[in-house]
Amino acid sequence: MSGDLVLETRGLVKEFKGFVAVDGVDLRVRRGEIHALIGPNGAGKTTCFNLLTKFLAPTRGQILFEGHDITREKPAQIARRGVVRSFQISATFPHLTVLQNVRIALQPKQGLSYQFWRNERVLDSLNERAFELLDTVGLRDVAAAVTVELPYGRKRALEIATTLAMEPRLMLLDEPTQGMGHEDVERVTQLIKKVAANRTVLMVEHNMNVVASIADTITVLARGAVIAEGPYAEVSKNPQVLQAYMGSEEVELQGAHG
Q1: Is the overall model pTM greater than 0.85, yes or no?
Q2: What confidence tier does 112 reach under pLDDT thresholds 50, 70, 90?
Q3: In angstroms, what is the C-alpha Rg of the chain?
Q4: What's the rounded Cα separation, in Å, for the pair 250 and 255?
Q5: What is the dihedral sign for C-alpha 54, 56, 59, 61?
Q6: Which backbone phi and psi does 221 adopt, to 5 degrees?
Q7: CA 80, 81, 84: angle at the middle one, nearest 5?
Q8: What's the CA gap between 232 and 251, in Å, rounded?
Q9: Backbone phi, psi, residue 69, to 5°
Q10: Which of the four pLDDT bands, split at 50, 70 and 90, describes residue 146?
Q11: DSSP one-letter string for 162-224
Q12: Distances (CA, A) of 173 to 106, 118, 134, 140
């Protein structure tokens, strides 16, 4: 089955001055799946994500992407391989328009780099693809709006569009519904499902309703270690998982926050 693996970690460990934040994690993310990484507060989810995206170096262990050992590679190198992360805090240019944000994200793939001073006509050549991406995330109608004026949920949709502009082979979404009201959560959940139709997604998510509705596989961390893995119906009944969330019944997991 190894040919189906997009991302794999083997015995991944991260220690901070004696504290073990990630403890021997073996993660296997399969091609075409939405894979969720969940766990209670302090479980090590964000540290694990930072190891995968090379913002932290592991103490021990190995990270493989499409069979290549990327353990010692830098963030820019793995981004070129197609590992693209969308951050928990919206990472767009607030005082540029929605369209301009997507065009900036498209520039490196077009060999233009981040050349803000380019002739407007040169950048206009990116418009067709930019509008396609805005259609994908349902933002074409606000293409001319200044990003800072967008509601929070639509800012996150724009961030997903800029992530898609980089043509990710693996999209890493960090708490994509954090801080959202119910309506925005539903919109972004459906958007993730849509954009995942022909790519692989690994997401850290605290909202169990989101995880239950779209994740194919769920890995549960507690105290830095994997305690369960499988579909939601399976992990939500796992006694270790229920104990980690300090509940004794399945319903406790429904509203759990990580």
Answers
A1: yes
A2: low
A3: 19
A4: 10
A5: negative
A6: -105, 145
A7: 75
A8: 13
A9: -75, 115
A10: very high
A11: HHHHT--SEEEEESTTTT--HHHHHHHHHHHHHHGGGSEEEEE---HHHHHHH-SEEEEEETT
A12: 19, 31, 18, 22
Tokens at 95, concatenated: 């005082």
Cα angle vertex 9, ends 3, 15, to 5°?
A: 175
Tokens of 251: 């319903």
Average pLDDT over residues 38-65: 93
What is the spatial distance between Cα 202 and Cα 173, in angstroms, rounded to a whole number?
6
Burial-class residue 165 by CB neighbours within 10 Å (0-12, 13-18, 19+). Answer: buried
Q: Is 48 left (phi over 0), alpha (psi -120 to 50) or beta?
A: alpha
Task: Work out the percent of the chain whose per-residue pLDDT is above 70.
Answer: 86
Asked whether 71 and 130 are in contact (CB, 8 A), the reply is no
Q: Are 102 and 159 in contact (CB under 8 A)?
A: no
- Take residue 94 and report the two structure tokens written for it: 């607030």
Indicate the fold that domain 1-82+169-258 takes in CATH.
Answer: Rossmann fold (3.40.50)
Domain ranges of the chain: 1-82+169-258, 92-167
What own/partner pairs with CB < 8 Å and gap ≥ 24 does 54-62 have? Answer: 54/78, 56/14, 58/12, 58/13, 58/14, 58/22, 59/13, 59/14, 59/15, 60/11, 60/12, 60/13, 61/9, 61/10, 61/11, 61/12, 61/13, 61/24, 61/25, 62/9, 62/10, 62/11, 62/12
Query: Exposed, middle or buried by CB within 10 Å (0-12, 13-18, 19+), for 56?
Result: middle
Q: Tokens 């969330």 identify what position?
A: 245
